């Protein structure tokens, strides 16, 4: 029997891990949607209002906080980011899955307010590769690059609060991993291969690799 309520998935990982690219590549069909966050940061080249983010000023953001309009929000790199609450609740009630691509502070708020949410952490292949990816994006000043890279370690330290971790070494594999987790979370009766693949991605199954990451 189909689920009546959608599942809330949270995807986090350090800046430059490729979370956005993974989310964009997920075969969602009509069964899941990616939430569009609101932010006070400036749009990057190519970003679209209402698709990448809702870009607002601080005044509007603070008003939204005041009217309890966010499911979660956080200050990240000196700018505000938040998940508008109403669209998420509407989609979940309509039976759709919702994916939040948010930082670890926001993920912890979601875990508290919605214990059924499924938290997935995306790990970059290495710290060196992460730095290269942030630099290659070319949209940040050297100071902001350092800030983002510096935050990566503390973010990775939050991984024990997540249910799953996916290593983004190869984009297609990472997309398939996240898709397998989403499928497996819906039903225990699905294809055994999917269940096994998702189970292998549990944080608890990857303690050694994560420990190596944290000490690296
Ligand atoms: P960026 O500026 O690179 O788009 O995003 C910076 C960080 O903010 C990323 O870690 C991203 O996942 C996070 N982020 C984006 N939207 C939200 C949101 O609505 N809430 C929270 N807490 N973090 C967000």
Question: Can you describe what's shown?
Answer:
With 216 residues, the protein is of the alpha/beta class. It has a domain at 8-35 and 96-215: 3-Layer(aba) Sandwich (Rossmann fold). The protein contains nine helices and nine strands. The protein has helices spanning 19-25, 58-66, 85-93, 104-113, 127-137, 142-156, 171-186, 192-200, 207-215, and strands spanning 8-12, 32-34, 38-39, 54-55, 70-76, 79-84, 97-101, 118-123, 164-167. It has a five-stranded parallel β-sheet, sandwiched between helices. A hairpin with a 2-residue loop joins β5 (70-76) and β6 (79-84). α1 (19-25) crosses α7 (171-186) and α5 runs antiparallel to α6. Guanosine-5'-monophosphate binds at residues 15, 37, 41, 72-74, 76, 81-83, 101-103, 105-106.
Write the layout of secondary structure elements.
Blueprint: E1 8-12, H1 19-25, E2 32-34, E3 38-39, E4 54-55, H2 58-66, E5 70-76, E6 79-84, H3 85-93, E7 97-101, H4 104-113, E8 118-123, H5 127-137, H6 142-156, E9 164-167, H7 171-186, H8 192-200, H9 207-215
Parallel strand pairs: 1-7, 1-8, 2-7, 3-4, 8-9
Antiparallel strand pairs: 3-6, 5-6
The chain binds guanosine-5'-monophosphate (5GP).
Residues 15, 37, 41, 72-74, 76, 81-83, 101-103, 105-106 line the site of guanosine-5'-monophosphate.
